[in-house]
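Researcher: Batch entry, complex prediction.
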Amino acid sequence: QLQLQESGPGLVKPSETLSLTCTVSGGSLSISSYYWDWIRQPPGQGLEWIGSIYYTGSTYYNPSLKSRVTISVDTSKNQFSLRLTFVTAADTAVYYCARQSNRGWFDPWGQGALVTVSS
Amino acid sequence: DIQMTQSPSSLSASVGDRVTITCRASQSISLYLNWYQQKPGKAPKLLIYAAYTLQSGVPSRFSGSGSGTDFTLTISSLQPEDFATYYCQQSYSTPLFTFGPGTKVDIK
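Model: Structure tokens for the complex:
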């Protein structure tokens, strides 16, 4: 059974860089037809898609975040990662990693990682 | 960008009630519409994909319908474990995916 697990610091200072890693277990992320995504949810709010990566390294980003986001993949570790630079309080959210099907639905999801931006 | 709206934003219902949630896209998205259930403190869970296909393991009391711009999620007989927030998501304009604002279903 495929499982995803986010990890990384839960507190980041304003203007610094948020870094999270998603570890995939129970299967390989080097499988064709699937992308691997980051999605976030500010406290009490809705869901925002951040970006996607294919195991080859091909990426897509939300234009609203594109200038600050980098998603990378390490197939040897079965992990993919998120970097978000110059964070502000508005970036405080639960960050989820998820597998994206070839028709764009997300399943499964990781349990989520709360990242708070505060000095 | 394709904007998604949902109605109502919240509703109160009783166990056994039939519940209908509507999702509307700002332009036609064919059948590229997916539904998720989220309980407090948990990740969203895929319920229905491609407008009406039930994800494996999801109870048959959940159903989806619609195409184009208007879609519906129906719970035929609400169960205690169904009290949650429901989100729709369009996957037509890949790779720019957007979600609806959510519909919270709580106990009357």
